[in-house]
TrEMBL record:
NCBIfam families: GGDEF, sensory_box. The keyword Repressor does not apply. This is cyclic-guanylate-specific phosphodiesterase. Residues 464-718 form the EAL domain. InterPro entries: Biofilm_reg_signaling, CheY-like_superfamily, EAL_dom, EAL_sf, GGDEF_dom, Nucleotide_cyclase, PAS, PAS-like_dom_sf. GO terms for biological process: cellular response to nitric oxide; phosphorelay signal transduction system. Its EC number is 3.1.4.52. Residues 150-202 form the PAS domain. It catalyses: 3',3'-c-di-GMP + H2O = 5'-phosphoguanylyl(3'->5')guanosine + H(+).
Amino acid sequence: MTPEHTGLTSSHGFPARLLVVDDEPRLLNSLATLLRGEGYEVTEAAGGRHACSIIDQMSFDLALLDLRMPEVDGFDVMAYLSDKQPDCGTIVVSGESSFAAVSRALRRGALDYIRKPFDPDELLTTVSSVIGKQSLLKAHEHVQMRLEKSEALHRYIVNSSPDIVFMLDEDGHFCFVNSKVEALLGYQPSELCGHHFRHILDDRDVARGTYALKGPNITADNPRTLEVRLKTRGSRRATRHFEITAFPIDPQTWPQSQDTRGRTNGKTARYYGTARDVTERKEAEAFINFQAYHDLLTRLPNRALFKDRLELAITHARRNHQKLAVMFLDLDRFKVINDTLGHAMGDRLLQAVTQRLEKCIRKGDTLSRFGGDEFTLLLPSIHSHDDARQISKKLIKALRAPFQLGEHEVFVGVSIGIAIYPEAGESMDQLIQNADIAMYHVKARGKDGYRFFSESMSIDSVHRLNLERDLRLALERNELKVFYQPQVCSTTNRVVGLEALVRWQHPERGLLYPRDFLPLAEETRLISQVSEHVMDQACKDVGQWIREGNPDLRLAVNLSPVQVEHPRFVETLMQRVTAHGFPAKNLEIEITENVIMNDLEQISQKLRELATLGVRIAIDDFGTGYSSLNYLHRLPIHTLKVDQSFVKAIRGGEDGACIVNAIVAMAHGLKLEIVAEGVETDEQLEYLRSLGCHQVQGFFYGPARPANEISQTLCNPNAEAVSF
Ligand SMILES: Nc1nc2c(ncn2[C@@H]2O[C@@H]3COP(=O)(O)O[C@H]4[C@@H](O)[C@H](n5cnc6c(=O)[nH]c(N)nc65)O[C@@H]4COP(=O)(O)O[C@H]3[C@H]2O)c(=O)[nH]1
């Protein structure tokens, strides 16, 4: 028999080391000899004191102890041994046979008791069995320790995984979840075990999440991967994004599946999975996505997103035979504010403008920042032009109140061009381009207003280029003509003034009117040359008529916003006037209210300078623009021109007639002269006369005519009785 089988070897694999303690040398010797004969490694100790000193120097697997020894007895040695070498077992070999002594020895930890005189076989059997048991115990402890270490290692790996690791039963209840769930979502693993996993799914993802687990084809080779939002617990109450990968558990590869160790709450784990927190990635993606389709300053959709939405809206409108509106908004005076107050203020202004505009639109409409100070607005389903008109008015009104930028109070206006699908274009690009063209027409008319696109505005780019080239040539070839429309005193029928109106004698297209070419001239800045030409010609013509016997004859000229806004406007105008020797007091410039309001401070200054030099100032189209009465008494204004639309309404007491009443009364109150435009009928003339408005202009007295025709009329001694 090998030592392993006889119980001679200890857990370390060598022959067991025994300590034999007895104060009787004969007995000690015979015991040691017996044990050595069996192959044990035996050390003898002659008494308790000797035993303790040996224990200090050597280690043993088993001690055979006599109890009754002088000075240091067996109990003392047992106590010493258990203190110094707790793994060493003890067998008492003693002549002491009282129950009390035996029981005391066993209570102190002795593993067995052999009474002297001993039977050698019995002693050897007992020693072998004790050593065998001890070695089994040690082996078991060792395995236990390794198991615990291994379990701790795996638990550590699972819990320190950056992901949530979980197991679910067949119905989706948690069987296991690692402690990462607490760090990421705030739940204790114990509170989730036994609960269905949908309890932590965001409501929006419950259907998708539960289907994913139940869905077909989920195998170990084909795990289910999906992104869901999970709810966090407690005060955070937010959701986080997770990428979940779940596998079915194969009972073959995980034998514990049938075991109680694989069960929690009596359920067997069927799915194993990980949930990786991808919130940061999702947020970064969302931000990149947002950045690609939004303007970061105003947080509005950008050009790309606007176009995308418009494309969709057109498809929808086409299918449902509906209309839609595209608006092109351009801020008036933004550039001036940006240049004078700086870009930071400009940015703040754009944000404030955005806020106001957003308040005017409905959910489903798309307002976008198209670039710079340009915005576009999509109204995806409108019933009529009137819907778009209402919104435009609302937008204009919303921006009319001043903006407070730090200590600065600034005013901006907005020019809005509107293109309605399908009339103004059926494609996205056409609609945007036509809304832009309509917006330019608003700008050319003095800004701050809205206009619908119409075919007459549509000049395709080739046509446009030709027109621009032609207009340049027209200036060189002197094709631009100045016509004059008389302004007549209705009580005396005398011509008191002449309004200079530009015409283009086009070599192929015949006589063109301002609406056919002035917007283009404004856009291309050719307007300054056109205006200079008109001014030169008018000063020449009217100057001559003044000199020829009409000393009070007034020349009224229209000025474009571009001209008036020019920093050297007053200087340039006066240079021309004096160059022709034209008396400043005979000159009246016509500007619209909008031009004034676009830059009240600057323009008032310029108007004051002109007024000081004797030039008269008339407000054209009065009543159609801002109608902010506030500026009237602050500016050197001489004349109000009542817009044609109000004069036309003088028919059986329409609202327009009331407006004429009000304007005339106000002009009288402010001691301003008043000229009614567009008078065509006797009835209108009579009505205006009855109100005390005596200066009129309109087809009733004749349209604008070339200089030679006017010249004849003025030279006619009966010129006072105008008859064209
Ligand atoms: N239906 C109707 N219309 C009448 C009647 N009486 C006059 N009109 C028209 O009404 C317009 C009056 O000029 P406005 O309001 O200053 O409006 C002018 C003015 O704003 C602008 N404009 C004309 N000439 C010049 C110019 O030399 N420089 C600038 N900057 N603008 C000009 O173009 C606009 C249109 O000019 P026109 O086509 O010449 O049109 C003129 C005139 O022909 C009438 O009884 N019935």
